[in-house]
């Protein structure tokens, strides 16, 4: 894409998002390949969201319980919007550790969240990997029970995606 | 009530401040940078996925349903049927009369195909078989029905019967056609069973049409029913089987508490052996427990 960097944002619509949850003696994973987001280095904006309806744990009844817990009809998205607090060298193809501060919103509740991860330039693309611990009680979600045993309120979140350069105007429109 | 203090000229003073304040507000709005962060528009993902929970378990009471497992999952089922309820309190309404218990394990090789093995008390029948989902009803209606096939083989492992191995074998196949209409699901199941050895004039092949319904009362409770008429030649003194069940989703298990006419499990043995008539009061208590284990994740 022949545009100046100022006119470019890096975007994905098929990123991987995963949560790992556990009950005593057992853990399970929910996955989605519909993580959508962009990094705008010029404006220093990071913006990602996931349609929670696309998460799958491998057991449809468990998915249904998860959707009920998350109240996905009322609050369909988990969202993170923030900014990078560390620099990223576009001329390096090394994996670079970065930190972002911003707000994470789920279940209609917004909390400040600092996330560390890695960015790496790969040709035109940039890969992103990040993980953090989410306490679902912070978002006023009650841990569901499996046979009267409560699911751990802390979940490991991991995202991984390749971001492609896009024109800012096409991506953000009039924003 | 205290009398208000009126300061002469105060109203004119306030009016004189109003115009500069408004002007300052307009200037600040135009000059100050826009702090709104540019965000992507939030868009829901369009999905056309299989309809959830057409039936809650792989077996209703005695008839297999179109429900199948996701790849890598293991389903365990324990099924029990007791004696007739009309045996009275001396037999604790049939519970003292012993249970025909069936244990079954099914493993999903893919999202559409599962295979498993089971064993029941009566005739010590061990059965192996599989279920394949040809069509899945989808949320958008692009596929309006579920279509699945089941095939199995049973082996009578009772000792000291004098049967040759081939005489112990029975075969079964069925086609399951189902659709979920909001909270109500209906399944029609044409089926055929073959027994290598029969008694007297009993036919070696039996044809039936299983009818299964499910109605979701809440997310956790559902009522289901099944009826299994046999068509054509049938075994002497047998009747069409029927069952009514309450399904309970505990979050990890599906419990089915039911009244049924047949104490046998597996469609071929229900068709071949049910001698009780539900509507004549010949029914018995039973319960099934189903649990899916996510082996793959």
Structure report:
The complex is a heterodimer of chains A (175) and B (297). Chain A contains two helices and ten strands. Chain A is 9% helix and 57% strand. The model of chain A has no long low-confidence stretch (mean pLDDT 88). Chain A has an eight-stranded antiparallel barrel with strand order 1-2-3-4-5-6-7-10. A two-stranded antiparallel sheet of chain A has the order 8-9. Chain A has one domain: Lipid/polyisoprenoid-binding, YceI-like (Lipocalin), CATH 2.40.128.110. Chain A has 175 residues and is mainly beta. With 297 residues, chain B is mainly β. Chain B has one domain: Porin, CATH 2.40.160.40. Chain B has two helices and 13 strands; from the N terminus they run αββββββββββββαβ. Chain B has a twelve-stranded antiparallel beta barrel. The termini of chain B are far apart. At the A-B interface, β2, β3, α1, β4 and β8 of A face loops of B.
Query: Strand pairing plus helix content of chain B: what structural class?
Result: mainly beta
Number of domains of chain A: 1
Examine the coordinates and then state which fold CATH places here, giving the name of the CATH topology of chain B.
Answer: Porin
| CATH hierarchy, class of chain A | Mainly Beta
Order of helix and strand elements from N to C terminus of chain B: HEEEEEEEEEEEEHE
Tell me the fraction of residues in β-strands of chain B, as a range: 35-45%
Radius of gyration of chain B: 32 Å
Strands in their spatial order, largest beta sheet of chain B: 1-2-3-4-5-6-7-8-9-11-12-13
Nearest-integer average pLDDT of chain A: 88
Distance between the termini of chain B: 76 Å
Please name the two chains that share the biggest interface, counting residues whose Cβ lies under 8 Å from a Cβ on the partner chain. A-B, 37 and 28 residues
Q: Largest sheet of chain B, if any?
A: 12 strands, antiparallel, barrel
Number of helices of chain B: 2
Total number of β-strand segments of chain A? 10
- Percentage beta strand of chain A: over 45%
